[in-house]
Design brief:
four-stranded antiparallel beta sheet; 36% helix
Length: 100
């Protein structure tokens, strides 16, 4: 199994209400990929970090193996969510993938 963790910072131009809506859209979109992307076992998007955080949200996904991770990266439904709900609103992305 492989864990895929991403931390994002949203662009600074958004107010708190816009950020809540953006986070909700990202959460709904990415968590909705389970059952649609082969090898994607589970997805959790965490949107309510503590004040001590320096990221706005986190993706925590589990995939069957590294091949499934590679397939996820290019799967059309994942790419559509990334291009419509994530990339337009984020200014930074940090990723860590590891075997579990």
């Amino acid at each position: 199994m492989v864990r895929h963790v991403i931390l994002w910072q949203l662009k600074e131009e958004y107010n708190d209400e816009e950020k809540r809506e953006i986070k909700a859209g990202i959460k709904e979109g990415l968590e909705g990929l389970v059952g649609k992307v082969p090898g994607l076992v589970e997805v959790h998007v965490h949107t309510e970090g503590l004040a001590s955080s320096n990221a706005d949200l986190m993706l925590d996904a589990v995939l069957e193996n590294e091949e499934a991770l590679k397939g996820y990266a290019v799967h059309p439904e994942h790419v559509a969510i990334a291009n419509s709900k994530v990339r337009p609103y984020t200014m930074s992305r940090t990723c860590l993938d590891f075997e579990i």
